[in-house]
Amino acid sequence: MLYRREGFPGEDELVLCTVTKVLPHVVFVNIDEYDKGGLVHISEIAPGRIRNIREYVELGKKIVCKVLRVDEQKGHIDLSLRRVSEIERKKKLEEIKQEQKAEKIVEMVAQQSKRKVNEVYETLTSKVFERYPFVHLFFREVASGQVQASQFIADNELAQIFQGVISDRFKPAKVSIKGTFSIKSFAPNGVAVVKSAFEAGQKKAKKTAVISLVYIGGGKYKIVVEAENYKDAEQTLKAVEDCVTTSILEQNGEVQFVREESA
Fold this sequence. Notes:
Blueprint: E1 14-22, E2 26-31, E3 36-41, E4 62-71, E5 76-80, H1 86-113, H2 117-128, H3 135-143, H4 156-169, E6 175-184, H5 190-203, E7 210-217, E8 220-227, H6 230-250, E9 254-260
Parallel strand pairs: 3-5
Antiparallel strand pairs: 1-2, 1-4, 2-3, 4-5, 6-8, 6-9, 7-8
């Protein structure tokens, strides 16, 4: 990847790492975004007793870690693999995936302008990184019409090419999360109560989120929330869950929500 960050990562920051060395009680990695070394002690690999550390990591493997401690003077960075939740891991990988997609756009622009990729990237990011932590976030706003490429790219020729390529090729990926509601309503107008509860939840959905609701029988409803990022999807699902739970309980009904594990 072209993407690099200056300095050191902050504590609790999620970072993408490449395993460079595996020893019986410690794993050495390269933190890709910062191009700096870090280590993961065996106690931070996974919960419980670990008999063979190589069952969890292998040389060259990409892993998402959480920064525990940073000693800038010594250049030491301690990391944890076990403290990264599945949601955090997926979010970080999606972030990297989108950035790689954005870099493909940079390559296209370099080819069209007959310039070197690194030169185009440096020209693009010199101002973009003052406002956006990632290039793909800038491209997303250009694609949606919120900003113009020329506002951040001083080179007019490059700005025009970027504007065209982004509009044509950059479509942010969607993420989805799912779950199932099990509902019992003892009210005479039980169906209307359930419907009203879901409508209240949908009104609190994020603008980028799309909610699909399907009745699967036996008082069970499957919900799918799709959004441009996990944050909006999670907030929307939580809003719907809270509204439905509150509405049903106020009517002396019963409700249970089970989150579906992502594949």
